[in-house]
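The record is kept unedited without comment:

——
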Amino acid sequence: MKHFKTAWKNIRRSPYQAFAATFIMTLTFLAFSLFSVIFYGSSRVVDYFESKPQVTAFFKDEAKQSDIDDLKKNLNDSDIVSSVKFVTKDQALEIYRDQNKDDPLLLDLVTADILPASLEISTYVVDDLTLVSDTLQKSVIVEEVVFQKDVVATLTSWTSILRRVGVFIVSLLAVVSIFIMVIITGIKVSQKRKDIETMRLLGAGSWYVRWPFIIEGAFYGFIGAVIGWSIAFGILLYATPQLMQFLKGIPAFPLPPLNTCDLTTHGTPTFSKAASISL
């Protein structure tokens, strides 16, 4: 208890140094918390797009159902394809109506006859999208192939850049925090040099002298962590409605409070790759 009293007395006697140390620690933990949220949210967005049908093959109007069934079977038999879903013309019309329910004029102009049937194909690995797309484009019953590899690749690239920038900024702030704590501690030790010499002459051990400075540094770190995390959590609570509106339909937010410390990169399962898909 005596060490805590001594540490508190040192803090009160040097308020500007205490403010500087707490401020830089707050910035460090604030940056860590914000970038943790960004990492987690961006990973959720990438996972969302990777879990969606990644390749869509639109069929010609003259395509026979038997040929479509054969194509679907060949895709299901492939080792690189995780799922295949057939969308009929009527189902395509329902999807169109749901997407344009706020525009009655567009709903009146479109019927099921003018919408193509399609297959929605997902792969285990994003890199296999090109192989599936190239194979589908060779089919005589397929009119157009659309896939979102570019979307996922762009998101993955931005996530990687954000992660590197975040690690650099947090590391820089952590190094600055350490240097500031060392400088402040050195100044305090220098100011109390005579007191320390007196305590050593009276038989005080090294740890007896060090403990007040250790407690003082821990206090700055604790206060900075609480303030930094609180500010980040407040920003998250304020920004969540806007982010949810911006990311319509993408379940990246809201985030659980404990996930602000989650820096885990979500991996993609690997499976055996087929050399080609026979159609």
Notes: Residues 257-276 have pLDDT under 50 and may be disordered. Residues 2-49+153-261 form one domain. The longest strand covers residues 81-87. The chain has two domains: 2-49+153-261, 53-147.
